[in-house]
Protein backbone atom coordinates (compact mmCIF):
# COMPACT_ATOMS: atom_id res chain seq x y z
CA UNK A 1 0.00 0.00 0.00
CA UNK A 2 1.39 3.37 -1.04
CA UNK A 3 1.91 6.19 1.44
CA UNK A 4 -0.52 9.03 0.72
CA UNK A 5 0.23 11.15 3.79
CA UNK A 6 1.74 13.99 1.75
CA UNK A 7 -1.21 13.99 -0.65
CA UNK A 8 -3.66 14.21 2.24
CA UNK A 9 -1.59 16.97 3.85
CA UNK A 10 -1.57 18.94 0.60
CA UNK A 11 -5.36 18.60 0.47
CA UNK A 12 -5.60 20.30 3.86
CA UNK A 13 -7.00 17.24 5.59
CA UNK A 14 -7.06 16.66 9.35
CA UNK A 15 -4.41 13.94 9.37
CA UNK A 16 -4.85 12.89 12.99
CA UNK A 17 -8.60 12.40 12.65
CA UNK A 18 -8.18 10.76 9.25
CA UNK A 19 -5.64 8.31 10.71
CA UNK A 20 -8.25 7.31 13.29
CA UNK A 21 -10.73 6.60 10.48
CA UNK A 22 -8.17 4.61 8.48
CA UNK A 23 -7.31 2.56 11.56
CA UNK A 24 -10.91 1.38 11.95
CA UNK A 25 -11.84 0.63 8.32
CA UNK A 26 -9.57 -2.41 7.66
CA UNK A 27 -10.88 -4.25 10.71
CA UNK A 28 -14.49 -3.49 9.81
CA UNK A 29 -13.92 -4.59 6.22
CA UNK A 30 -12.14 -7.76 7.32
CA UNK A 31 -14.91 -8.71 9.74
CA UNK A 32 -17.66 -8.15 7.18
CA UNK A 33 -16.06 -9.20 3.91
CA UNK A 34 -12.89 -11.23 4.28
CA UNK A 35 -14.62 -13.62 6.69
CA UNK A 36 -16.83 -14.85 3.83
CA UNK A 37 -16.15 -18.24 2.28
CA UNK A 38 -16.03 -19.11 -1.43
CA UNK A 39 -16.08 -15.49 -2.62
CA UNK A 40 -15.75 -14.88 -6.38
CA UNK A 41 -12.09 -14.42 -7.28
CA UNK A 42 -12.95 -11.29 -9.26
CA UNK A 43 -13.84 -9.48 -6.04
CA UNK A 44 -10.09 -8.94 -5.66
CA UNK A 45 -10.46 -5.66 -7.56
CA UNK A 46 -13.00 -4.21 -5.12
CA UNK A 47 -11.03 -5.50 -2.15
CA UNK A 48 -8.00 -3.64 -3.50
CA UNK A 49 -9.99 -0.44 -4.00
CA UNK A 50 -11.39 -0.50 -0.46
CA UNK A 51 -7.97 -1.25 0.99
CA UNK A 52 -6.83 2.10 -0.47
CA UNK A 53 -10.22 3.84 -0.72
CA UNK A 54 -8.76 7.26 0.16
CA UNK A 55 -5.59 6.78 -1.84
CA UNK A 56 -5.78 5.17 -5.27
CA UNK A 57 -8.73 7.00 -6.80
CA UNK A 58 -8.00 10.38 -5.15
CA UNK A 59 -4.44 10.22 -6.52
CA UNK A 60 -5.83 9.55 -10.00
CA UNK A 61 -8.20 12.51 -9.73
CA UNK A 62 -5.41 14.85 -8.64
CA UNK A 63 -3.24 13.76 -11.60
CA UNK A 64 -6.10 14.52 -13.98
CA UNK A 65 -6.61 17.93 -12.35
CA UNK A 66 -2.96 18.71 -13.07
CA UNK A 67 -3.83 18.18 -16.75
CA UNK A 68 -6.57 20.78 -16.48
CA UNK A 69 -9.58 18.51 -15.98
CA UNK A 70 -12.28 19.39 -13.44
CA UNK A 71 -13.79 17.06 -10.86
CA UNK A 72 -17.50 17.20 -9.96
CA UNK A 73 -18.59 15.69 -6.66
CA UNK A 74 -22.14 14.30 -6.64
CA UNK A 75 -24.51 12.92 -4.01
CA UNK A 76 -27.42 11.48 -5.95
CA UNK A 77 -28.34 9.14 -8.82
CA UNK A 78 -30.35 11.90 -10.51
CA UNK A 79 -27.27 13.92 -11.49
CA UNK A 80 -26.50 12.95 -15.12
CA UNK A 81 -22.87 11.82 -15.26
CA UNK A 82 -23.11 11.87 -19.06
CA UNK A 83 -23.13 15.67 -19.17
CA UNK A 84 -19.92 15.99 -17.14
CA UNK A 85 -18.10 13.34 -19.16
CA UNK A 86 -19.16 14.99 -22.43
CA UNK A 87 -17.22 18.10 -21.34
CA UNK A 88 -14.15 16.01 -20.39
CA UNK A 89 -14.96 16.43 -16.71
CA UNK A 90 -14.77 13.69 -14.08
CA UNK A 91 -17.56 12.59 -11.75
CA UNK A 92 -16.98 11.16 -8.30
CA UNK A 93 -19.38 10.19 -5.57
CA UNK A 94 -18.87 11.80 -2.17
CA UNK A 95 -18.51 10.05 1.18
CA UNK A 96 -21.44 9.72 3.56
CA UNK A 97 -21.87 6.20 4.93
CA UNK A 98 -20.04 6.16 8.27
CA UNK A 99 -20.92 7.11 11.83
CA UNK A 100 -17.38 8.50 12.07
CA UNK A 101 -18.47 11.64 10.18
CA UNK A 102 -21.80 12.19 11.94
CA UNK A 103 -20.53 14.23 14.97
CA UNK A 104 -18.88 16.82 12.71
CA UNK A 105 -22.15 17.06 10.78
CA UNK A 106 -24.16 17.50 13.96
CA UNK A 107 -22.02 20.53 14.80
CA UNK A 108 -23.98 22.46 12.16
CA UNK A 109 -27.09 20.31 11.55
CA UNK A 110 -29.97 19.24 13.81
CA UNK A 111 -29.51 15.81 15.36
CA UNK A 112 -32.87 14.90 13.84
CA UNK A 113 -31.32 15.09 10.35
CA UNK A 114 -30.78 11.73 8.63
CA UNK A 115 -27.31 10.19 9.13
CA UNK A 116 -26.51 10.21 5.41
CA UNK A 117 -26.75 14.01 5.29
CA UNK A 118 -24.96 14.51 8.62
CA UNK A 119 -22.15 12.20 7.55
CA UNK A 120 -21.73 13.93 4.18
CA UNK A 121 -21.51 17.38 5.76
CA UNK A 122 -19.26 16.05 8.52
CA UNK A 123 -16.90 14.43 6.02
CA UNK A 124 -16.36 17.83 4.43
CA UNK A 125 -16.24 20.01 7.52
CA UNK A 126 -14.12 17.53 9.48
CA UNK A 127 -11.60 17.42 6.60
CA UNK A 128 -11.42 13.63 6.68
CA UNK A 129 -12.59 12.72 3.16
CA UNK A 130 -10.21 13.43 0.24
CA UNK A 131 -13.03 13.34 -2.33
CA UNK A 132 -14.65 16.34 -0.65
CA UNK A 133 -11.28 18.13 -0.67
CA UNK A 134 -10.56 17.35 -4.33
CA UNK A 135 -13.87 18.22 -6.03
CA UNK A 136 -13.84 21.51 -7.94
CA UNK A 137 -17.63 21.71 -7.72
CA UNK A 138 -20.37 19.93 -5.79
CA UNK A 139 -23.62 19.07 -7.56
CA UNK A 140 -26.63 18.84 -5.29
CA UNK A 141 -30.32 18.24 -5.92
CA UNK A 142 -33.60 18.89 -4.18
CA UNK A 143 -34.68 15.35 -3.31
CA UNK A 144 -35.36 16.21 0.35
CA UNK A 145 -35.56 19.21 2.66
CA UNK A 146 -32.52 18.15 4.68
CA UNK A 147 -30.33 18.12 1.59
CA UNK A 148 -31.61 21.52 0.47
CA UNK A 149 -30.34 23.16 3.63
CA UNK A 150 -27.15 21.09 3.70
CA UNK A 151 -26.24 22.46 0.24
CA UNK A 152 -26.28 25.98 1.71
CA UNK A 153 -23.67 24.92 4.26
CA UNK A 154 -21.49 22.96 1.84
CA UNK A 155 -21.70 25.74 -0.73
CA UNK A 156 -20.10 28.30 1.56
CA UNK A 157 -16.52 27.46 0.54
CA UNK A 158 -16.88 25.25 -2.56
CA UNK A 159 -18.79 26.11 -5.77
CA UNK A 160 -22.19 24.40 -5.60
CA UNK A 161 -24.70 23.80 -8.38
CA UNK A 162 -28.16 22.61 -7.34
CA UNK A 163 -30.50 20.80 -9.72
CA UNK A 164 -34.19 21.26 -8.95
CA UNK A 165 -35.90 17.85 -9.08
CA UNK A 166 -39.60 18.03 -10.03
CA UNK A 167 -41.88 16.53 -7.41
CA UNK A 168 -44.21 14.90 -9.95
CA UNK A 169 -43.75 13.04 -13.26
CA UNK A 170 -46.16 14.72 -15.63
CA UNK A 171 -45.07 15.58 -19.17
CA UNK A 172 -44.37 19.17 -18.12
CA UNK A 173 -42.26 17.93 -15.19
CA UNK A 174 -40.10 15.80 -17.48
CA UNK A 175 -39.64 18.81 -19.76
CA UNK A 176 -38.67 20.88 -16.72
CA UNK A 177 -36.04 18.28 -15.86
CA UNK A 178 -34.71 18.46 -19.42
CA UNK A 179 -34.33 22.23 -18.89
CA UNK A 180 -32.46 21.57 -15.64
CA UNK A 181 -30.08 19.29 -17.55
CA UNK A 182 -29.53 21.99 -20.20
CA UNK A 183 -28.76 24.51 -17.46
CA UNK A 184 -26.41 22.05 -15.79
CA UNK A 185 -24.65 21.49 -19.12
CA UNK A 186 -24.02 25.24 -19.42
CA UNK A 187 -22.50 25.29 -15.91
CA UNK A 188 -20.32 22.29 -16.73
CA UNK A 189 -19.12 23.94 -19.96
CA UNK A 190 -18.20 27.12 -18.11
CA UNK A 191 -16.42 25.21 -15.33
CA UNK A 192 -14.43 22.94 -17.65
CA UNK A 193 -13.90 25.42 -20.47
CA UNK A 194 -15.02 22.69 -22.90
CA UNK A 195 -17.96 22.72 -25.29
CA UNK A 196 -20.48 19.87 -25.19
CA UNK A 197 -21.27 18.68 -28.69
CA UNK A 198 -23.83 16.07 -29.83
CA UNK A 199 -20.95 13.78 -30.75
CA UNK A 200 -19.29 14.05 -27.33
CA UNK A 201 -22.60 13.64 -25.51
CA UNK A 202 -23.45 10.59 -27.63
CA UNK A 203 -20.11 9.07 -26.67
CA UNK A 204 -20.59 9.73 -22.96
CA UNK A 205 -24.15 8.34 -23.06
CA UNK A 206 -22.73 5.14 -24.54
CA UNK A 207 -20.02 4.95 -21.88
CA UNK A 208 -22.50 5.19 -19.00
CA UNK A 209 -24.96 2.83 -20.69
CA UNK A 210 -22.18 0.23 -20.96
CA UNK A 211 -21.49 0.65 -17.26
CA UNK A 212 -25.19 0.12 -16.50
CA UNK A 213 -25.29 -2.99 -18.69
CA UNK A 214 -22.31 -4.47 -16.85
CA UNK A 215 -23.91 -3.88 -13.44
CA UNK A 216 -27.17 -5.37 -14.72
CA UNK A 217 -25.31 -8.53 -15.80
CA UNK A 218 -24.15 -9.10 -12.23
CA UNK A 219 -27.67 -8.59 -10.90
CA UNK A 220 -29.08 -10.95 -13.52
CA UNK A 221 -27.01 -13.82 -12.06
CA UNK A 222 -28.55 -13.15 -8.64
CA UNK A 223 -31.94 -14.21 -10.02
CA UNK A 224 -30.70 -17.80 -10.26
CA UNK A 225 -31.53 -20.53 -7.76
CA UNK A 226 -27.76 -20.82 -7.51
CA UNK A 227 -26.65 -17.63 -5.69
CA UNK A 228 -23.12 -16.99 -7.05
CA UNK A 229 -22.34 -13.86 -5.04
CA UNK A 230 -23.29 -12.54 -1.62
CA UNK A 231 -25.44 -9.46 -1.24
CA UNK A 232 -22.56 -7.83 0.63
CA UNK A 233 -20.21 -8.26 -2.33
CA UNK A 234 -22.82 -6.98 -4.78
CA UNK A 235 -23.40 -3.95 -2.55
CA UNK A 236 -19.66 -3.24 -2.42
CA UNK A 237 -19.49 -3.35 -6.23
CA UNK A 238 -22.35 -0.86 -6.44
CA UNK A 239 -20.85 1.49 -3.85
CA UNK A 240 -17.51 1.65 -5.66
CA UNK A 241 -19.29 2.24 -8.99
CA UNK A 242 -20.11 5.76 -7.76
CA UNK A 243 -16.40 6.59 -7.44
CA UNK A 244 -14.59 4.63 -10.13
CA UNK A 245 -13.70 5.58 -13.68
CA UNK A 246 -16.79 4.44 -15.67
CA UNK A 247 -14.89 2.62 -18.40
CA UNK A 248 -12.77 0.69 -15.89
CA UNK A 249 -15.86 0.05 -13.79
CA UNK A 250 -17.60 -1.57 -16.77
CA UNK A 251 -14.54 -3.67 -17.57
CA UNK A 252 -14.08 -4.99 -14.03
CA UNK A 253 -17.81 -5.55 -13.56
CA UNK A 254 -18.03 -7.51 -16.81
CA UNK A 255 -15.08 -9.61 -15.61
CA UNK A 256 -17.02 -10.35 -12.42
CA UNK A 257 -20.19 -11.09 -14.41
CA UNK A 258 -18.28 -13.60 -16.56
CA UNK A 259 -17.20 -15.45 -13.44
CA UNK A 260 -20.68 -15.36 -11.89
CA UNK A 261 -22.34 -16.64 -15.05
CA UNK A 262 -19.89 -19.56 -15.08
CA UNK A 263 -20.59 -20.20 -11.40
CA UNK A 264 -24.32 -20.42 -12.15
CA UNK A 265 -23.62 -22.94 -14.93
CA UNK A 266 -21.39 -24.96 -12.61
CA UNK A 267 -23.83 -24.78 -9.68
CA UNK A 268 -21.41 -22.89 -7.42
CA UNK A 269 -23.32 -21.00 -4.74
CA UNK A 270 -22.07 -18.96 -1.80
CA UNK A 271 -25.09 -20.02 0.27
CA UNK A 272 -26.47 -23.45 1.19
CA UNK A 273 -29.35 -24.75 -0.89
CA UNK A 274 -32.67 -23.54 0.50
CA UNK A 275 -31.31 -20.30 2.02
CA UNK A 276 -34.13 -17.75 2.20
CA UNK A 277 -33.90 -15.01 -0.42
CA UNK A 278 -34.32 -11.39 0.69
CA UNK A 279 -35.00 -8.21 -1.29
CA UNK A 280 -33.81 -5.07 0.51
CA UNK A 281 -35.76 -1.92 -0.38
CA UNK A 282 -35.60 1.67 0.80
CA UNK A 283 -32.89 4.21 1.54
CA UNK A 284 -29.42 4.07 -0.05
CA UNK A 285 -26.41 2.52 1.69
CA UNK A 286 -23.36 4.69 1.04
CA UNK A 287 -19.89 3.22 1.58
CA UNK A 288 -18.94 1.94 4.18
CA UNK A 289 -22.49 1.20 5.38
CA UNK A 290 -22.54 -2.62 5.24
CA UNK A 291 -24.40 -3.10 8.50
CA UNK A 292 -27.80 -4.40 7.39
CA UNK A 293 -26.50 -6.74 4.69
CA UNK A 294 -24.02 -8.24 7.16
CA UNK A 295 -26.69 -8.88 9.77
CA UNK A 296 -29.08 -10.44 7.24
CA UNK A 297 -26.42 -12.68 5.75
CA UNK A 298 -25.20 -13.89 9.15
CA UNK A 299 -28.79 -14.58 10.25
CA UNK A 300 -29.50 -17.40 7.83
CA UNK A 301 -30.66 -15.47 4.74
CA UNK A 302 -29.21 -14.12 1.49
CA UNK A 303 -29.74 -10.66 0.00
CA UNK A 304 -30.40 -11.24 -3.71
CA UNK A 305 -31.47 -7.74 -4.77
CA UNK A 306 -31.56 -4.11 -3.60
CA UNK A 307 -34.36 -1.77 -4.63
CA UNK A 308 -32.32 1.25 -3.58
CA UNK A 309 -30.18 3.99 -5.13
CA UNK A 310 -27.18 1.77 -4.35
CA UNK A 311 -28.99 -1.01 -6.19
CA UNK A 312 -31.34 -1.35 -9.14
CA UNK A 313 -32.28 2.34 -9.30
CA UNK A 314 -28.68 3.14 -10.24
CA UNK A 315 -28.50 1.03 -13.39
CA UNK A 316 -31.97 0.08 -14.58
CA UNK A 317 -33.12 1.68 -17.86
CA UNK A 318 -30.73 2.98 -20.49
CA UNK A 319 -30.56 6.36 -22.20
CA UNK A 320 -31.74 6.28 -25.83
CA UNK A 321 -28.57 6.34 -27.96
CA UNK A 322 -30.29 7.13 -31.26
CA UNK A 323 -30.68 10.89 -30.70
CA UNK A 324 -28.36 13.17 -32.69
CA UNK A 325 -29.11 16.70 -31.48
CA UNK A 326 -28.40 18.18 -28.07
CA UNK A 327 -32.05 19.01 -27.43
CA UNK A 328 -33.12 15.46 -28.23
CA UNK A 329 -30.26 14.05 -26.16
CA UNK A 330 -31.19 16.20 -23.14
CA UNK A 331 -34.78 14.98 -23.49
CA UNK A 332 -33.56 11.37 -23.67
CA UNK A 333 -31.51 11.93 -20.51
CA UNK A 334 -34.54 13.46 -18.79
CA UNK A 335 -36.73 10.52 -19.76
CA UNK A 336 -34.24 8.02 -18.34
CA UNK A 337 -33.46 9.82 -15.10
CA UNK A 338 -37.10 10.64 -14.38
CA UNK A 339 -37.74 6.91 -14.61
CA UNK A 340 -35.94 6.50 -11.26
CA UNK A 341 -38.58 6.01 -8.57
CA UNK A 342 -37.36 7.89 -5.51
CA UNK A 343 -39.67 8.45 -2.54
CA UNK A 344 -39.45 12.21 -3.19
CA UNK A 345 -42.14 11.93 -5.89
CA UNK A 346 -45.90 12.07 -5.51
CA UNK A 347 -47.73 10.00 -6.48
CA UNK A 348 -45.10 7.27 -6.42
CA UNK A 349 -46.90 4.11 -7.51
CA UNK A 350 -43.94 3.37 -9.82
CA UNK A 351 -41.77 2.44 -6.85
CA UNK A 352 -44.40 0.04 -5.54
CA UNK A 353 -44.57 -1.54 -8.99
CA UNK A 354 -40.77 -1.85 -8.99
CA UNK A 355 -40.68 -3.63 -5.63
CA UNK A 356 -43.40 -6.09 -6.62
CA UNK A 357 -41.69 -6.73 -9.97
CA UNK A 358 -38.26 -7.25 -8.41
CA UNK A 359 -39.70 -9.56 -5.74
CA UNK A 360 -41.02 -11.76 -8.54
CA UNK A 361 -37.95 -11.54 -10.80
CA UNK A 362 -35.51 -12.42 -8.01
CA UNK A 363 -37.78 -15.12 -6.53
CA UNK A 364 -37.61 -13.62 -3.06
CA UNK A 365 -39.06 -15.18 0.06
CA UNK A 366 -39.41 -11.86 1.82
CA UNK A 367 -38.69 -8.13 1.70
CA UNK A 368 -36.87 -6.01 4.29
CA UNK A 369 -37.81 -2.36 3.82
CA UNK A 370 -35.13 -0.21 5.46
CA UNK A 371 -35.33 3.42 6.47
CA UNK A 372 -32.45 5.55 7.70
CA UNK A 373 -33.59 7.24 10.90
CA UNK A 374 -35.19 10.67 10.36
CA UNK A 375 -35.72 10.12 6.61
CA UNK A 376 -39.39 11.06 6.62
CA UNK A 377 -39.83 10.37 2.87
CA UNK A 378 -39.02 6.66 2.98
CA UNK A 379 -40.44 6.32 6.49
CA UNK A 380 -43.82 7.62 5.35
CA UNK A 381 -43.76 5.60 2.14
CA UNK A 382 -43.01 2.49 4.19
CA UNK A 383 -46.73 2.28 5.01
CA UNK A 384 -47.62 2.01 1.32
CA UNK A 385 -44.79 -0.44 0.62
CA UNK A 386 -45.79 -2.78 3.44
CA UNK A 387 -49.48 -2.59 2.52
CA UNK A 388 -48.80 -3.49 -1.13
CA UNK A 389 -46.51 -6.39 -0.22
CA UNK A 390 -48.95 -7.84 2.29
CA UNK A 391 -51.75 -7.64 -0.27
CA UNK A 392 -49.48 -9.51 -2.70
CA UNK A 393 -48.81 -12.18 -0.09
CA UNK A 394 -45.12 -11.29 0.24
CA UNK A 395 -43.74 -11.25 3.82
CA UNK A 396 -42.24 -7.89 4.74
CA UNK A 397 -40.26 -6.49 7.66
CA UNK A 398 -39.94 -2.73 8.14
CA UNK A 399 -36.74 -1.53 9.78
CA UNK A 400 -35.50 1.88 10.93
CA UNK A 401 -31.82 2.22 11.72
CA UNK A 402 -28.80 4.52 11.57
CA UNK A 403 -25.03 4.09 11.26
CA UNK A 404 -24.29 3.16 14.87
CA UNK A 405 -24.03 -0.41 16.13
CA UNK A 406 -26.24 0.37 19.13
CA UNK A 407 -29.22 -1.43 17.60
CA UNK A 408 -27.28 -4.27 15.96
CA UNK A 409 -28.38 -7.01 18.36
CA UNK A 410 -31.97 -5.81 18.34
CA UNK A 411 -31.93 -5.87 14.53
CA UNK A 412 -30.38 -9.32 14.53
CA UNK A 413 -33.13 -10.63 16.81
CA UNK A 414 -35.86 -9.20 14.58
CA UNK A 415 -34.24 -10.37 11.34
CA UNK A 416 -33.59 -13.88 12.69
CA UNK A 417 -37.25 -14.11 13.74
CA UNK A 418 -38.33 -12.87 10.29
CA UNK A 419 -36.14 -15.44 8.52
CA UNK A 420 -37.42 -18.20 10.79
CA UNK A 421 -40.98 -17.17 10.02
CA UNK A 422 -40.22 -17.51 6.29
CA UNK A 423 -39.08 -21.08 6.80
Walk me through the topology.
Elements: H1 5-10, H2 15-34, H3 44-51, H4 56-66, E1 71-74, H5 81-86, E2 90-93, H6 102-106, H7 115-125, H8 130-134, E3 137-141, H9 145-154, E4 160-163, H10 171-192, H11 198-221, H12 231-241, H13 246-266, E5 276-282, H14 291-297, E6 301-307, H15 312-315, H16 326-337, H17 349-361, E7 366-372, H18 376-391, E8 396-401, H19 408-422
Parallel strand pairs: 1-2, 1-3, 3-4, 5-6, 5-7, 7-8
Provide an overview of this structure.
This protein has 423 residues and is an alpha/beta fold. The chain has a single domain, classed as Rossmann fold. Helix content is 54%, strand content 10%. It has a four-stranded parallel beta sheet, sandwiched between helices. Strands 6-5-7-8 form a four-stranded parallel beta sheet, with helices on both faces. It is globular. The termini are far apart. 51% of the residues are buried.
